[in-house]
Amino acid sequence: MFLFVLALGVTFVSCSDDSNDDYTPLKPYDNRDEFVGTWDCKEFGEVVSIYGDKKETDLINVKKTVKVSKVGENQIKIGENIYTFDDETKVGFKREEIIDKIEEVGDKFITIKGVRKEDGFLGIDYISIEVEYEGTTTDAEDKKWIVTSKVTISLKNRR
């Protein structure tokens, strides 16, 4: 009797209709979906400026929220910055930017030249970005300062 019930069950399962007009293929998994949303952000580090014997250090300690979204096929946007992933695993990214600009400060202008490097990593509920900058700033009095900075940006998912 047991074999008859087992054979009957196999018949029902194996004879079921495989054609289903409602079939929708699964979309490929994109782990960037895990990061889309609003995140708590902490930026901390320092900026060191040197002119001759004069050295100034400004500490950075900022807390805010940022939006994270997907961009294109292999990129993620964090706040206003777009990052391209290193590989197909989509867990790390690097970005290097040459900076050469003039900014208006009050009624005077300063020149900023340098290289900004960013190295990021995405975890399950966090994103970490190390930012380094080396360059020069010519202030409104035409003094050329050597500027270096190292800042860590730490994002935690708000879920």
Task: Please write out the topology.
Blueprint: H1 2-14, E1 37-51, E2 54-71, E3 75-78, E4 81-84, E5 92-105, E6 108-122, E7 126-138, E8 144-157
What this model shows, in words?
It is elongated and about 70 Å long. An eight-stranded antiparallel sheet has the order 4-3-2-1-8-7-6-5, with no helix packed on it. The protein has one helix at 2-14; strands at 37-51, 54-71, 75-78, 81-84, 92-105, 108-122, 126-138, 144-157. With 159 residues, the protein is mainly beta. It starts with a helix and ends with a strand. It has one helix and eight strands, in the order αββββββββ.
Short note summarizing the structure:
The chain is mainly beta and about 160 residues long. The protein contains one helix and eight strands; from the N terminus they run αββββββββ.
Distance between the termini: 54 Å
Counted by DSSP, the helix tally is 1
Estimate the strand proportion.
Answer: over 45%
User: How many DSSP-defined strands?
Assistant: 8
- Please summarize the sheet with the most strands: 8 strands, antiparallel
Shape: elongated
Helical fraction equals under 10%
Strand order of the largest sheet: 4-3-2-1-8-7-6-5
Task: Give me the Rg, rounded.
Answer: 27 Å
Question: Main attributes?
Answer:
159 residues, mainly beta, eight-stranded antiparallel β-sheet, disordered N terminus
